[in-house]
Write a structure and sequence with these properties.
The chain is mainly alpha-helical and 80 residues long. The chain has helices at 7-13, 42-75. It binds zinc ion.
């Protein structure tokens, strides 16, 4: 973990943001410039995308399990 400087430290160093060369930082890490319309940097764009895809894959498994359960119940003449 790097030490985050106080505002006084920043003013002493002549700037008042994490990186003066980055006008609009990434909304996730705030360290890299935004490159997509959601406001993520290149690194976070892919990281978030992977998380979303993993989430929808899990949802698919979950719904698939329910579908198999419904099928199992139907085969045994039970109501879901
Ligand atoms: Zn980022």
């Amino acid at each position: 973990m790097r030490k985050s400087p106080t505002r006084a430290d920043m003013n002493g160093m002549g700037f008042c943001g994490p990186d003066p060369s980055i006008e609009h930082g990434c909304i996730r890490c705030g360290e890299n410039p935004q490159v997509d319309e959601q406001g993520y940097c290149g690194r976070c764009h892919w990281a978030v995308r992977a998380e979303v895809e993993e989430g929808s894959a899990r949802l698919g498994e979950y719904l698939g399990a329910w579908a198999r359960f419904a099928e199992w119940c139907t085969q045994r003449g039970r109501e879901v």
